[in-house]
Amino acid sequence: GKRVSKGKDIQTESQIFNYAYSQLEKEKAQVQQGSKNLTFSGVLKMATNQETRKRPLIEISFRDLTVILKGNHKILLRSVTGKVRPGRIVAIMGPSGAGKTTFLSALAGKTVGCKVAGTILINGNSVSIRSYRRVVGFVPQDDIVHGNLTVEENLWFSARCRLPADLPKADKVLIVERVIDSLGLQAIRGSLVGTVEKRGISGGQRKRVNVGIELVTEPSVLFLDEPTSGLDSSSSQLLLRSLRREALEGVTVSMVVHQPSYTLFRMFDDLILLAKGGLTVYHGPVKKVEDYFSGHGIVVPDRVNPPDYYIDILEGTMKQSPSLGVNYAELPVRWMLHNGYPVPPDLRSSIPPNATSMIRDDQNPIHHGYYLDYDGDDADDDRREFRLAEEKSFAGELWQDIKANIERKRDAIRHNFLKSDDLSGRRTPSIPKQYQYFLIRVIKQRLREAKTYAVDYLILLIAGGCLGSLTKANNATFGFAAYTYTI
């Protein structure tokens, strides 16, 4: 092709960034004006227009979702039913051991070493979420950023590898600049993230960069595992406002949160509240949660944060009093009865006396055939006692660990290498192009670590010289065999 001059390159880059910043200014002006298009219904209507949007809208519904750990058969999540919808921010809350991260991983198709039972539907169809993996973002609790790259380089690497290959560079610049602006990363965009040995940006800033790495991919579904941990109130609200902008464009946002402030709590649309054992206590709009619990005699005292109060009750740390009106162990069963869900046999002892008529004997195997530990059959009881006795012995524990590790490795291989049909409609860069991006990234990282490598080689050189000067190497002292093995 025709070679373009250097001046032309500079002019083109300038035009690209001018386009991106002008679009950002227009978006900010629209937000400040508060136009009708920025309401949920208006933006969602605009989001469904294929001329202005290419990423699909995804609704995830689940029924009787149960997760059991392989090996020791521990139930991590049990009979969770509901849905997460486009344009809504869902908060997943509960005490420690409630299965919040397990639930998030099950929805994202990332459970390893576990048996998943129940039904998960994508837009009403029985397909795997992995079919939409190119438009699904997942922010884990641990940092996934590269410490020897700058904030902007981390974001650009993710954008280049995961955005559509045919997307113009000007639009990619706009996406990255929008994320940097919305997450408040302008002041540190050129700073190295840092490592354990070499300090860089703060922990809260690293958390925002983690979220930004997924936001620049323009996902249709976004899962986040405790993204506000380590953030102050102001940074948490900044993050939620950024996620709100994504939700207004029709993105399905689900996130695990731990003890949010009242202001932050009111910024969520829906709440999934889990009790210990992975049972659902509430699933619905945030604005109706206090009315629901008030109907069961649980009233939040004045000047008390509602989510903190509910979690204290589910944790069992709140002392029972006549004013509380209900035992915390009854809350999962009350939720099942409230929605007409069948109650598992082992939980029927927690049913309030006045609610017995609401029980339905559903023949769903998730409640009767799957929980062999609870169905009351004598033969199953004998098998359970034998299995428990086997697990208590040293050989039994060793065998369970070996079997669990094998199954975990098998699940990891299946998760990473098993192909599924791509329904996302997004064509990402080819393997040679991605190899080029990885190669450029590795070269940058190695060049920035050149001083460390130079010091290491200098130490080896000095140590080798010292040892060589102390030893007289000849045929008599060193030997033919030593020369041979040295070669």
Automatic annotation (TrEMBL):
Keyword presence, Transmembrane helix: yes
InterPro entries tied to this protein: AAA+_ATPase (IPR003593), ABC_transporter-like_ATP-bd (IPR003439), ABC_transporter-like_CS (IPR017871), ABCG_dom (IPR043926), ABCG_transporters (IPR050352), P-loop_NTPase (IPR027417)
Top-level taxon of the source organism: Eukaryota
Domain named ABC transporter: residues: 60-301
GO terms of molecular function: ABC-type transporter activity; ATP binding; ATP hydrolysis activity
Membrane topology: Multi-pass membrane protein
GO cellular component entries: membrane
Record carries keyword Zinc: no
SUPFAM superfamilies with a match to the protein in the record: P-loop containing nucleoside triphosphate hydrolases
Cellular location(s): Membrane
SMART domains: AAA (SM00382)
Keyword vocabulary terms for this entry: ATP-binding, Membrane, Nucleotide-binding, Transmembrane, Transmembrane helix, Transport
Chief place of localization: membrane
Assigned protein family: Belongs to the ABC transporter superfamily. ABCG family. Eye pigment precursor importer (TC 3.A.1.204) subfamily.
Protein name per UniProt: ABC transporter domain-containing protein
Organism name: Genlisea aurea
